[in-house]
Design brief:
By secondary structure, this protein is α+β, with helices and mostly antiparallel strands. The chain has 14 helices and 35 strands. The longest helix is centred in the middle third of the chain and has 34 residues.
């Protein structure tokens, strides 16, 4: 294996980075030559079967686990308040890394993790839902950045991915594809999970490989997404070992937990009753004390103060404290249940006989804990997408964690679970958004079981580490495309050398205008918008990152970024600012926080769509965009003699959407915005048997245009505009059948466009999903006028 050092220009001079790549060949490898003998006579011929490339002898199985939206100080393993016995056990058999870094948002971390390249470098400067038409932000995984899975697969590994993906362009996540940016085209031979940034744990939109599938059970039957993912991953491994037990595997397990919505069963929530009544200020102090006691942080580390933008716990009213404390109880339950399920996966892997032949990388968070819930958290909304008053939300406090809400805790809980650092998810300028726990366990190979490693490392370092462990080379070219070099460095040196200096010397960070740059223990950063402001278009367009000041920290002496040295050391700050600019230009970071624009759509400029019965699970991004436009829905049906009922068309679900259905013989058109009915029209007469021609016309009131509203975190699959009002008119067989004002369209969230049923959660409380139509649907036509 030949190391190739990469030359980069830094500060006008030359600087050697310790990024490691390997001189390599190409993939796919050529077909092997026939080594037998061919003769006209079969008795004189000798057969020879082509042999596929096998893995290096002794190459370990790899289990790569990634949690979502977990802060550095959330798990008990790293001093936090939530018991995580499975993570504890893994840490006892392996190593804990307390200076491991991720990118401060979902898609960027996952792209860097699975490729070994920087996020902007390969088009993932933000989440896929926020993609922009620039090389650093287009969410299109380039062919020049082969994935770990592809390299390992072509070097003899079996590969499978489970859970959250979030690295396929939103306009390609549909039944027609294209599928070349899906997991199964990026090296994973099997995939089961959901494609977006978040989804309901009770009613997720699942895919097996590239085919949409429904959950195997209902919440009433005990269904929960994380449990389902563990079950499927365990079955995959059992099938694998039943057929090819000698073949190593790469199993990537990325939960939707603990991203909002915080969905977890009541029995888990009950375990944490009353445990957060002390509030976030005291919780942070308690966590800090445990981190010191456990040696997770240096004795010299300081606890950074609460930002002025977050309230003191004691300043809240009694009602606020009651609601917000319960939000944290629900989150703690969610994390505890996630740890239990991951522990069950690890136990199942061990039960298959995989211990010393398997290395586990467990990253507890793809970014810091999420402050996207804002000052009071989120659950129930008004019709225009604003959070309901606390007193109204308390009426439903016991429903948090269940099917009724897409709940999120208050921002200060995220700050508390990012102890001892400043800020949170999205905030790439500070460690609260970028530093997360890493556990590496390899029984029989890592000698310092239970040890702590303090070298600076980044999520890009996982790929070169796995390549070194597997004894494979990064190819020079894949399918004829020259490959970008790896940006990370192998971490293997740290396994047996706890005191060896960090091999990762320079790393930039940028997300949504928040900037950070690290070099040899120094960090400079500039913070932009508050995490709960970044979804508001007015804030986004009205503030540019260049308006924000820079801070400077010496992380060699100041582990938690407690002392801003910008005024005391302006020369060092200037040096790092120039380094950030150099790295930003090299990695496609500019323009900072590009203006948001609608992404491409599969249908292009088409405004008329015809659907047939059974067309289902079309994501909102690929469905007709009726909100804010005059539109017509036409349904041609055949009603049986006994009558018909069920959903004709539905888009969205309980948290927002519209639906056209038949119930008790009457045609009904209903609109739901953010979980609230905003208009309903029921036909004046029941449907008669025979042919039925149903038309719904919506005409917006242009004198009262919709307005921008806050609806949740970046990339949560939500509609960020409430559009209305207008008038809906219903006709049947050419005769007027009713009309109603529609106050507003809005919400939609994670759910889909379906013909003949309403999959997921129901748009209307008047029926239970799927409420399949039992007549015949000839066609449904949607026209945007």
């Amino acid at each position: 294996m030949t190391k190739i050092r990469k030359l980069v220009v830094v500060m006008g001079g030359l600087s050697w980075l310790s990024a490691m790549t390997w001189a390599a060949d190409v993939l796919p490898k050529p077909d092997p030559a026939f080594k037998g003998k061919i003769d006209p006579s079969r008795d004189k011929s000798t057969p020879d079967w082509p042999r596929r490339t096998g893995a290096r002898k002794g190459a370990p199985n790899v289990v790569l686990i990634l949690l979502d939206d977990v802060g550095f100080g959330a798990t008990a393993t790293f001093g936090g308040p939530v018991p995580t016995p499975a993570l504890d056990q893994l840490a006892k058999s392996g190593l804990r890394y307390n200076r491991f870094h991720v990118n401060s948002l979902c898609s960027p971390t996952r792209a860097a993790l699975l490729s070994g390249r920087n996020d902007h470098e390969i088009g993932f400067g933000t989440v896929v839902e926020g993609a922009s038409g620039y090389p650093g932000y287009n969410s299109i995984w380039p062919k020049s950045a082969v994935s770990i899975a592809e390299v390992l697969k072509q070097n003899g590994y079996s590969t499978a991915a489970f859970g959250k993906w979030h690295n396929t362009p939103v306009w390609e996540t549909n039944p027609a594809g294209p599928f070349d940016h899906w997991p199964t085209s990026l090296g994973f031979e099997y995939y089961y999970g959901f494609m977006g940034g978040a989804d309901s744990q009770w009613h997720p939109r699942l895919y097996r490989n590239t085919v949409a599938v429904e959950p195997p059970a209902t919440p009433a039957e005990g269904y929960h997404l994380t449990t389902d993912l563990v079950n499927d991953a365990s079955r995959w491994l059992q099938r694998h070992d039943a057929v090819s037990p000698q073949k190593p595997f790469f199993l990537y397990f990325a939960t939707g937990a603990t991203h909002t919505p915080h969905h977890v069963a009541k029995e888990w929530i009950a375990k944490f009753a009353g445990q957060f009544d002390q509030g976030w200020d005291r919780l942070r102090e308690q966590t800090f004390a445990r981190q010191r006691e456990f040696g997770i942080i240096p004795a010299s580390a300081e606890l950074t103060p609460r930002p002025k933008e977050m309230p003191a716990w004691d300043s809240l009213s009694a009602n606020q404290r009651r609601l917000l404390a319960h939000e944290m109880e629900v989150y703690a339950a969610f994390l505890a249940q996630t740890d239990y399920e991951v522990g069950r996966l690890l136990a199942n892997i061990k039960a298959e006989g995989h211990t010393e032949d398997t290395i586990v990388f467990y990253i507890a968070g793809d970014n810091g804990a999420s402050a996207e819930g804002g000052p009071e958290g989120l659950d129930a909304y008004t019709v225009d997408g604003k959070p309901r008053p606390v007193e109204a939300r308390l009426e439903h406090i016991d429903d948090l964690g269940g099917e009724l809400f897409l709940n999120h805790y208050a921002a200060a809980w995220a700050w508390a679970t990012n102890t001892p650092f400043q800020w949170s998810k999205q905030v790439a300028s500070h460690l609260g958004g970028t530093r997360d726990p890493l556990i590496v366990s390899w029984p029989g190979h890592i000698k310092d079981a239970g040890g702590l490693r303090t070298q600076f490392h980044h999520v890009t370092d996982i790929a070169p580490t796995l390549y070194e462990l597997a004894g494979v080379e990064l190819p020079d070219a894949v399918n004829g495309v020259k490959q970008l070099p790896l940006e990370g460095v192998s971490m293997v040196y740290s396994f047996d050398h706890p005191d060896q200096p960090s091999a990762h010397k320079i790393q930039y960070f940028e997300m949504l205008g928040n900037r950070g740059i690290y070099k040899d223990g120094w960090w400079a950063g500039s913070r932009h918008l508050l995490p709960w402001q970044s979804t508001q278009l007015a804030n986004w367009e009205g503030h540019t990152p260049e308006q924000n000041p820079w801070e400077l920290y010496n992380l060699n002496e100041d582990y938690s970024q407690a002392h801003n040295l910008a005024e005391r050391n302006p020369e060092k700050l200037k040096e790092l600012q120039q380094l950030f600019d150099s790295e930003a230009r090299r990695n496609n970071v500019y323009p900072l926080a590009p203006h948001r624009a609608a992404p491409p759509t599969p249908a292009g400029a088409q405004t008329s769509f015809v659907y047939h019965a059974g067309v289902q699970r079309i994501p909102t991004s690929s469905a007709p965009r009726v909100a804010g436009h005059a539109h017509r829905i036409t349904a041609d049906l055949d009603i049986p003699a006994g009558g018909a009922e069920g959903v004709i068309l539905a888009q969205g679900g309980r948290y927002g959407g519209y639906t056209l259905y038949v119930k008790d013989g009457h045609v009904t058109y209903e609109v739901n915005a953010f979980g609230n009915r905003t208009g309903i029209v029921v036909s004046s007469k029941p449907l008669a048997a025979g042919k039925a021609h149903i038309v719904v016309d919506f005409t917006p009131d242009d004198s009262q245009p919709g307005k921008q509203v806050v609806t949740g975190g970046v990339g949560q699959g939500v509609s960020t505009r409430a559009v209305g009002p207008g008038m809906a008119r219903l006709s049947i067989n050419g005769e007027p059948a009713g009309e109603t004002p529609i106050a507003v369209f809005g919400g939609y969230y994670y759910e889909t466009f379906d013909i003949g049923s309403d999959l997921g959660t129901p748009v209307s409380a008047s029926y239970a999903s799927p409420f399949a139509f039992n007549g015949k649907i000839d066609t449904v036509k949607v026209e945007i006028q």
